[in-house]
Structures are given as C-alpha cells and as structure tokens.
Amino acid sequence: MLCSRIIFVFILSNFIFCRGFENDYQDAVDLNKADNKKSTFEQENTDEFEKDKRKSIVGSDDRIRVRPASSQVLPFGAVVKVKISPRAGSCSGILVGPRHVLSAAHCFHNGNEYLAPKKSLNVGVLQSNQRFTWYRVRQVSLPRAWYSTTPMNPEVDYAILTLKRPHGRSYLPIKAFSIKKLLPFNSMHFACFPNDKQENSMWYSSCPVGWQPNSTSYRTVIMNTCDAAGGCSGAGVYVLNPRNQNRYIVGVLSGTVNSRAKNVITRLTSKKVKEICRWIGRLAKSGCRTNGIQ
Length: 294
Prior knowledge:
Layout: H1 2-13, H2 31-41, E1 49-50, E2 64-65, E3 79-85, E4 89-97, E5 100-103, E6 122-126, E7 132-141, E8 159-163, H3 179-182, E9 187-192, E10 203-208, E11 221-224, E12 236-240, E13 247-257, E14 263-267, H4 270-280
Antiparallel strand pairs: 1-13, 2-10, 3-4, 3-6, 4-5, 5-8, 6-7, 7-8, 9-10, 11-14, 12-13, 13-14
C-alpha cells in the first residue's frame, strides 16, 4: 500500500524518494500541495520575525505523532524537550553529542538577559513508557552576536546546552550546507514537543526544502512551510541523504514570520558549525571533524 502511494506521488511530482525511518508514518508529503504553498509565500517580504506560542500551520495540519517505540531510535530518539521555567515555558532540542543539546538561543536569552537561571533548566529524554528522564544543565553556550541582537536575530538563533551527565542516547551530526546544496534533498524534517498537544507526545513534520528570504538582512535563514506550534522552537531540522540514509542537522527551528503562517529556520553555516564544535569538542559522530560548508 505504501509503495503504491510512493509510485503515485512520483508520477505526480516527478521526484520522490523513500525516507528511511519516516516510512512508519507518512513516507511522502503531497508535493503538489506543498509546492503550491511555497509559491504562494515565495515573493512575500520576510523582514519581520516573531517568537510566540501560536501555531504555524499551512493549509491542513500534516503533523504526525511519533509512536512510542519509534521515539527510542534515530532520528526521533535524539529529540528532547527543554523545560525553561513556568513563565518562559518549554522548547525542543536535538542531541548532537554525548552531553550536548542543540536548541534555539531565544529560548534562554532575550538578547539582554537570561530568561531563567541554569539551575531551572531541565532537558527531558522521552522513554518508551512515555515518561521523561530529566537531565540538569551545566552550561548554556550562545553565539557572541546574540548578546548584542536587538531585535533577536534569527541568523544567530542557536545554542548548545551541556548536560551535567551523559544521556546515553545516539545523536545526530551537524553539517553546514549552502541553500543551493540543500535544494537537491527535496525535503526537510524535524520532530518536537508542541504545546498544543499532550505534553509527552512527540510530533513529526516534513515539507519541501524552503527558500532564502528576499530581504538582504537575512542571508542565513530558511523559510519553510512545515507545520509547527509553540514548544517546537529549537527543534533540530535535518535532511536525509537517500543514497546512504544518513541524516544531518542543517538548522534550528527559530520561530514564525510575523502575521505569516510559515516558519523560520536558522541555517547552519561553516562558521556556526565551527563555533558549535568549539563548545562540544571535535567529536567525529557530531560532525565536528568535517565542518566545511557543502
């Protein structure tokens, strides 16, 4: 049944490939519908960004709940929930090292001050029984440019949380791609813990690779039409190499465009990857031995 669906979509769109683990959910998005979404937004001015708790749903809600068993293996086994404070709420993140979580800077710092002390931060790893194992945070690392950002700049909206103890999970490598090199991947993916769903439920989103905004102010962000909601900020956005089934974290979900139903991704560049690797160490499995831009 799944293969028949893939063949059908291939005929309509001329290009589709089987994504490894995501076959358990919905192997192919409706590319015709997604392409229509993209063309609708592509020419819009994208110079306003907003970090808020409202949904960013384009057309129908295509998010898919990740099954409990599937949440234990990659790529979903690397997805975490980050509790900040009762006032600041929660974000999502992705494991990129044995004690390291990649997330969004705005979840922890507003450009002028921290939103909560480190001792109040907790990173939750979802277990097969749908309960979280919580880890305390030792260090929050932010790009230097973030501290002088007013308003908060999505180009530098990334952070690394260093945990006090190893999480014991497999994690995904980071990699820098130019927007031109990302386009052949066709699809982008992320999973997160949205605030509009049950607290311990993980949800998966996928959509065509986005586009760079027209504004000259934002050269290293990607606009996309993936569905998301509050609580998904900080989710690791990845692509899948169909030849070897390898996944690479290529960006961080930053927020939504003000008054627009689309999301903003902070794209990882070689400079950003180099900075992240200084924070976590040159770990081969983290992608920190080969951090040149692709």
